[in-house]
Write the structure tokens for this entry.
Amino acid sequence: MPVMHSGRMNGATTMLLSEFARIPTINGHTHVIPEDDRLKRDLDALSYFAHPYCAADLQSAGIDDDTLRFVVGNQGFLALPETKQTVAPLAERWERFEPWWHRVRHTGFSQCLLEGWRAAYGIDGLNSETVGAITNAIRAGRRPGHYAEVLKCMGNIQVSLMQMGGPFGEPVDDFDRELFLPVPRLNRFTMLRSRDDLMDLEREYNEEFSSVDGLASKMADRCAEWQAMGLPEVKLSQSYHRAMDFGDPDHDAAEAIFAGLRTGRYEGLDSASGKVLEDVLVFHAVRSATAAGLPLQFHVGPRAGTFGTLEGTSLAPMARLIRSHRDARFDISHSGFPYFTEAAVLAKTCANVFLNLSWMHIYSPEGCVRALREWLRMVPSNKIIGFGDDLYWVDTILGHLVMARQNVAEALAGMIDDGLIGEGDAVSIGRALFHDNPASLYGLDP
């Protein structure tokens, strides 16, 4: 039985966990490796620690690069290598890994692995006695249909919103629509790093973009195409290189900068002129998606990996953009963590802001419980998207969902204990967070 973070596993919590398991959950954010790619990989228990989240915890604890590479091998990284690396026997790798495991095993990222392996394979804990059994179970899951078994049958996940990767984040083909809906990105239109980026766009679309307005027109076309394909939303990732202060767009200045970019006179995305151009393009992106009836997902929260900054974590600088587009819908992925209260103020006062807890249940389990209690007494409950895994491996998605249900159940059970809500209210709120709210925002139910 999972252990709640507060140590409290009362009757209300048990009842809520049982009810939440019956809710067909909408997973609002995944990066799961496509199943045909997964089938090419020989994963084991330790290769899971190559994932950027677990690897970052180990690096923060002080592991050196050689030890990390020795432990994880090369099958667990995002890009599958052309040749399989010969790795040391599992027992030798575990011996090198074990001291580091004791330093990170209580973090949310590590607990997610444990919960996933427990839920998917019935194996408790990671130690010298279980690492082999977990590896055997992972390898037994290397078969077609395993994704549907874990996501649909074990997790009761109705559908997962797949974040498009690759160099541009635009291709949306070859997906099992029974399990996934693609979420394409407008990054390449809004984050022009050099003249080469623009030339790549022109070659791909066989079209010359002679002005900012021309580029904006193509964004509008793409959003309309994606909407016609039944896609749920589009994404922008500006916070990975800047604060979310899009200011007052200067269209004339942006056109002049764009003209310079075409001729190679451009200081780059992270320059003062690059910001002016990007600000205007982001405004156009919001208008394009909104005209097509699509919400916009913005990454506003921590950056993955190590030595990231808090520069793009605050939602407050987006207030100008939010107020300027009141008919838009802003899906705030990661909810502006660690500034949960700041984000909640905007969600409370702006009808077009939605708080998405993707990633956060494992980044800060305790923070999620505290935030949910605050939000539910501050923000209309239809504004909260309860779950998004943000992970590579299907069994870890299940582990993340287990933890998300625990967090929501703990927050709501505490509110029941405090006399703030009844059990029926708690069940209704859980259904809203895990299903009804994302279904409404993404247009998934009739």
Remarks:
- The longest strand covers residues 157-163.
- Strands lie at 25-30, 157-163, 180-183, 234-236, 296-299, 330-333, 353-356, 384-385.
